[in-house]
Amino acid sequence: MFSDAKESTLRALVPSCIFQSFSAGVTINKVGEIPAFIYCLRSGSVEGWASLNDAETIVATSAAPMVFEVSTAVQHHASVLAIVTREASETIAIETSAFLKAIQDDQAVCHAALIHASRVNMQMIDRLLDHRLRTAEQRLGQWVLSAMERNGNSRTVTIGVSKRALAYELGMSPANLSRLFNVLREHGVETKGMSMTIVDLDKLRQLSRA
C-alpha cells in the first residue's frame, strides 16, 4: 500500500500509526461503526465475521500482508464485518483521517488503494461464484486441495481452525460439514480428529472439478 509513497507522506503518517499485537480470537474492529483506523496486517491471519439475527458466517479470511477497512474508510461507511484474529497477529493501525489525506495528497497511495479495493472486490466475486456454482462437497474438496498445496503437497492436512470456523468459511453449517467428512471418505479423503489424509488424489480432484 505504501511502498511507492513519497517520503513526505510516510513522515506525515508516522504520528498517526499505532503498533498492535493480538492473541487469537480477538475482535479488532466494531461492526456498525465508521472505522477510526485502517489496519495493516503485518503477521498472522484474520477472519471476517458477519451476523444477521441468530445466523452468523465467515465471509472471508485473509493472511498477512493485508490491509483492511480501506473501502469503509473511503466511503465513510460503517463496518459490516467483524475482523477477528485467527491466530496471534500484529497490525499497524493508521488513523483514518491521516490515511484519507495520504490518498488525496499522494498519487501513488491513491493508486495502491484503488488496486487493493479492486483485488478485494474480485476475491469476493470469486467467493460468491464458488458458493453459487459449486456444491458443498466440491467446496470442501477444493479446500483440501488448497491446504495440501500450501503444505508442500503433503497428503496429510491438518485443520488448523475449529470445525465450526471451517464450516462457516465454506458457507455451510457445522452439522453439514460433519456429514461431508463421511461423504469425502468415498472420494479419497479420510478424516480423523483434526487431520485429513488424502488416500486417492485422483478421486478428490475428480470430485472438486465436477
Largest beta-sheet characterization: 4 strands, antiparallel
The proportion of residues forming helix, as a percent range, comes to 40-55%
- Summed over residues and divided by their number, the pLDDT gives a mean of 90
In whole angstroms, the N-to-C terminal distance is 38 Å
Order of helices and strands: HEEEEEHEEHHHEHHEEH
Give the arrangement of secondary structure elements.
Blueprint: H1 7-13, E1 17-22, E2 37-43, E3 45-52, E4 55-63, E5 66-68, H2 70-75, E6 82-85, E7 89-95, H3 96-105, H4 107-133, H5 136-150, E8 156-158, H6 163-169, H7 174-185, E9 189-192, E10 195-198, H8 201-209
Helix pairs in contact: 3-4, 5-7, 5-8, 6-7
Verbal overview:
With 210 residues, the protein is α+β, with helices and mostly antiparallel strands. It folds into 2 domains: 126 residues, Jelly Rolls (Sandwich), CATH 2.60.120.10; 75 residues, Winged helix-like DNA-binding domain superfamily/Winged helix DNA-binding domain (Arc Repressor Mutant, subunit A). The chain is built from 8 helices and 10 strands. The strands form 3 sheets. Strands 1-7-2-5 form a 4-stranded antiparallel β-sheet. Strand 9 and strand 10 form a beta hairpin. The radius of gyration is 19 Å and the shape is elongated. The relative contact order is 0.14. The model has no long low-confidence stretch (mean pLDDT 90).
Sum up the structure in keywords.
Arc Repressor Mutant, subunit A, four-stranded antiparallel β-sheet, Jelly Rolls, single chain, 26% strand, alpha+beta, three-stranded antiparallel β-sheet
